[in-house]
C-alpha cells in the first residue's frame, strides 16, 4: 500500500480506426454482458448462500471463475497456467501489473483479494471487488488488530487471501521490492500455525507489434482509455500465470526474510518467462 509507481512515458494509444471501433463493439458488448450479467447472478446466489453459509461461499467463487475464464475468450487473450494452485486455505502473493490481474488470478484459482480500502469506492472495479468478497484494509497501524481478526476469520472459512506486496501496479516487466510490513500480520500467533503462502508470477506478452508494456496499467493511467486500447487492438497477446511451490510460515524467522524470499521467487518466474 504505497504511492503509485511511475514511468516517464506510456505505450502509444491504439488508433481508433473503423476497424478498431468495430473491435471495441464486438468485444466490449459481450464482455459487459458477461461481467455485469455474472455479477447479477453472483449477487442473487449470494443472497441465498450467505444466510446458510456465512463466510463460506460454496457456489459463488465458481461463478467468478467462469466469468474470468470466459473474459479472456471474449478479449482474445490467450491464457495458460504453469504449476499447481495450493490446496487448502492460506495466503497467495503475486506481482501486480494490470487490472487484468483480477481476471488472470481468478481464472484458475478461487481466491479473495486483499485491497486498500479506497478501491471499494472506485466505480465499476469497486462494485466487482465488493461482490466477489474482497477484503478491504486501511493503511492505519491502529487497524492492525481488527485486520488480523478479519484475516483469521477468512482463513478459518477456507479462503485463500491474495496480496500484492509491491503495493502498486507496474508495467509488467519488473517486480518491485515486496513491502515486509504487509507480512507482519502473518506472524501473529492467531494466524501463524500451519499457514502456507504461495508465490505466483503473472506474465503478460504484448500483441505482435505493440509496446512490451501494452497490458501494464500503472501510475495515473486512466482505466477507460486502457480498457478501450485492450478492446481495440487488432491481435491480442497472452497471459501466463505461474504457480510456484508454497512455503510454510514456520520456516521463516521474520517477515523481512519471508518477504524477500517470496519476492525473489516471483521475480524468477518473470525472468524465466521473459527469456523464453
Descriptive notes:
The protein is globular. Helix 1 runs antiparallel to helix 2 and helix 1 packs across helix 6. 34% of the residues are buried. It has 276 residues and is α/β, with parallel strands linked by helices. Helix content is 39%, strand content 14%. It has a domain of 186 residues. Strands 1, 2, 3, 4, 5, 6, 7 and 8 form an eight-stranded mixed beta sheet that branches.
Brief synopsis:
By secondary structure, the chain is an alpha/beta fold.
Radius of gyration: 19 Å
Number of strands: 8
Strand content: 5-15%
List unreliable stretches of 5+ residues.
none
Distance between the termini: 32 Å
Instruction: Tell me the structural class.
Output: alpha/beta
Q: How much helical structure, as a percent, in the residues?
A: 25-40%
DSSP summary: helix tally? 7
Give the SSE string. HHEEHEHEHEEHEEH
Give average pLDDT, whole number: 86
Rough shape? globular
Tell me about the biggest sheet?
A: 8 strands, mixed
